[in-house]
Amino acid sequence: MKITAITTMVLGTQWRNLVIVKVETDEGIVGVGECRPINKVDSLVGYLHDVGDRFVVGLDPFDIELLVRRLTIEDYGKPGEIAMSGLAVLEMACWDIMGKALNQPVYRLLGGAVRQQIKAYANGWYTVERTPEEFHAAAQRAVAKGYHALKFDPFGACFYELARKEKLKAVALMEAVRDAVGQDVELLIEMHGRFNPVTAVEMTRALAPYSPAWIEEPVPPANLPALKKVADAVAPLGIPVATGERLHTLHEYRELFELHAADIIQADISHFGGILHTKKLAVWADTYYMLIAPHNVGGPIATAAALHLAACTPNFKIQEHFNDFDEPYVNASAPGNPPVVDGYFDLPKGPGLGITLDEEIVYTHPEQRIHFNLFKEDWHKRKARL
Ligand SMILES: [Mg+2]
């Protein structure tokens, strides 16, 4: 089988653009991949155009390792966010094609299911005013959809430090959400790499009475010894550290593992070279007794890829999911995923990724001019259209 054509398209929403690829083959089997680049949409589309004819058309879609080699080693440079995202969407589409060719769901080609249900957590549920009352009500609406775990960032738009008034506000928001959901629901605290180490530790201690299930990206992603400093300080509180959505290659994880600088890694399949690359990372993490909770801010195709990886990965923890809190046409753009029911996805269906792209919906919701800025007031309302 040979790849004969690659088509890119963009599904626009109010706060994210989803880059979708359709990969066609000489046997008539078509696969799809998807990624949400943070703002850099045209860069990713341009990269896919750049490598498509040179490296991908003519390739057998079963030759995943050759695809990886071509887009990393043979293209020289140093693969980062754009290259590893472009590789990921193409790799995802190849798995979709392989599964369809073999009439199997992707997870059965990667070791088979180790679980029958996949635990989910909700994100994007708090697009309301930043008050305890509105967060309280929004959290109740999220758990009413069946979620047993919610993630949120209560820290506003700060960077490195936080004014005392803002510290108290963050604690008040956490208190309100805990009060809304009761003791059984897991609350995952997103820090978005906002803090210097001492502030991250201070805020973790301040939120500890409300039992956060993890703190995420307490410091920016570049300095792993700084992350280690935070992890050591919060370990006595029994609060795990999660990170990794902004690391894009296996090599970038080496120092994190060697330092034992986190408890949970959060590679994003769609920014990390795809499903097999992330599976390799999960195996490596397991040797450090670390769990993997893949970051996922994608639409239904990236979510499908995440579900297949979750199904077959022993040290998988929990799957991020936004799409129950966005415009319904996002899920409708590629139907086929199991819904979240009582906090869990069922195993994804096949063959392949088990979803079917609806190009009509994509073309009727074109790319939007968006600047999603996590360091601007009210970013959490996710109204990022320019
Ligand atoms: Mg995050």
Give an overview of the whole structure.
It is a single chain. With 386 residues, the chain is α/β, with parallel strands linked by helices. It folds into 2 domains: 101 residues, Enolase-like, N-terminal domain (Enolase-like, domain 1, 2-Layer Sandwich); 247 residues, Alpha-Beta Barrel (TIM Barrel), CATH 3.20.20.120. 37% of the residues lie in helices and 16% in strands. The protein contains 12 helices and 13 strands. The strands form 3 sheets. A 6-stranded parallel beta sheet has the order 5-6-7-8-9-10. A 4-stranded mixed beta sheet has the order 11-4-13-12, with helices on one face. A 3-stranded antiparallel beta sheet has the order 1-2-3. Strand 9, helix 9 and strand 10 form a beta-alpha-beta unit. Helix 4 packs parallel to helix 5, helix 6 runs parallel beside helix 7 and helix 9 runs parallel beside helix 10. The longest helix has 22 residues. The termini are far apart. The model has no long low-confidence stretch (mean pLDDT 97). Bound molecules: magnesium ion (MG). Magnesium ion binds next to loops.
